Amino acid sequence: MNDTVMDDSRIRGLPKAELHVHIEGTLEPELMFELACRNAIELPFASVEEVRAAYEFDDLQSFLDIYYQAADVLRTEQDFYDLTTAYLERAHADGVRHAEIFFDPQTHTDRNIPFSTVVTGLHRALNEGEQRLGITALLIMCFLRHLPEESALSTLEEALPFRDWIVAVGLDSSEVGHPPEDFQRAFARAREAGFRVVAHAGEEGPPSYVWQSLDLLGAERIDHGVRSTEDPELLARLVRDAITLTICPLSNIKLRVFQQMSDHNLKDLLHEGVRATINSDDPAYFGGYIGDNFIAARDALGLSDNDIVTLARNSIEATFLDESSKQVLLDELARYLEVQGIPV
Ligand code: ADE
Ligand code: ZN
Q: In 3D, which of 159, 230, 226, 150 has the Cα closest to residue 190?
């Protein structure tokens, strides 16, 4: 029996962390047009409506083709600042108290946008967002796995002067055919330099990519990881080592990882004891921010109040914050539950 204390507004108000959001995936069509105009770029779309209508995807690659093309409107430090500020405002409205945000430097440096332009714009927006909205945030630099490991290694070198602004490295882009084992040197070098490690795995790729991410790259969290349920030994490993999966329900439906939300294995994973979290991935493309993801999963899967609170608590516990900062957020969550009369 699923009681209904956790209505939409309580879900949005629930203090939470977002651990899987690509800043380039928060580019709303309106901002895309604004930046195209500002930078005198011609878009292959006549209107915002036409852009939205193009967001029908068959799989990950069909999405990535449009996503990388759209990123071309991001040219100046101010563009990266505006993009990040817009995300923080949306996240704030959904109760996000802390965000760990991916960016893809190679998407920009390959277009001759300097690494420093990207990271300075992001960093300035995060600093200001913390002052204005009270959201803390950390940056995670992702390597594009469709590019050679040499490109990841040189990107890592470019990042070293900004080491203090970037908490972790990750691995994203086209998964199948680009196994984590191909990036062992880049991740070893990143770990040596003190970066934390995450990796996209088990979104479209097989459970072996999740094993490789853990055992060969040293991943502390797995982004997506939903195909882990195909391998009982892997599932046991995730539970034993309290490995977090950063699950993105609306993304998984838009990219046809599951045909419909009621088929999603989020609730099964949670009930198996996996430290699952809910996130938005690329919210401008997939039909919603983190609150929408919680609501869609609750409605289709019948998540209980207890499930929803566990997901929020998991998100805070899985951050790369220090223990005392985590405790501040956990206390805030406990206070919220008390004030709202949510019995868990
Ligand atoms: N880059 C942006 N979104 C992604 C996803 N869902 N999987 C892999 N790479 C991505
Ligand atoms: Zn992702």
A: 159
Residues 48-66: tens digit of each pLDDT: 999 999 999 999 999 999 9
| pLDDT tens digit sequence for 261-274 | 999 999 999 999 99
Ligand 1 site-directed mutation target among 22, 103, 140, 143, most atoms within 8 Å of CB: 22
Q: Are 135 and 96 in contact (CB under 8 A)?
A: yes
Say how many C-beta atoms besides its own lie within 10 A of residue 65's C-beta: 12
Active-site annotation holds for 24: no
This prediction has a pTM of 0.98
- Element of type H or E holding 52: helix 48-53
CATH code: domain 13-338 is 3.20.20.140
What is the distance of C-alpha 341 from the center of its chain?
30
**Residue 252 alpha carbon to ligand 1 centre in Å:** 10
What residue ranges line ligand 1, CB within 6 angstroms?
A: 22, 25, 60, 172-173, 200, 203, 251, 281-282
Query: Is 185:152 a contact under the CB 8 Å cutoff?
Result: no
| pLDDT tens by residue, 64-73 | 999 999 999 9
Residue ID of nearest Cα to ligand 1 atom 6: 281
Nearest residue CA, atom 8 of ligand 1? 173
* Phi and psi at residue 64, to the nearest 5°: -60, -35
Amino acid at 18: E
- Cα–Cα distances (Å) from 339 to 4, 97, 105, in that order, read 16, 18, 42
Domain ranges of the chain: 13-338
Give the DSSP H/E element, type plus range, for residue 245: strand 244-247
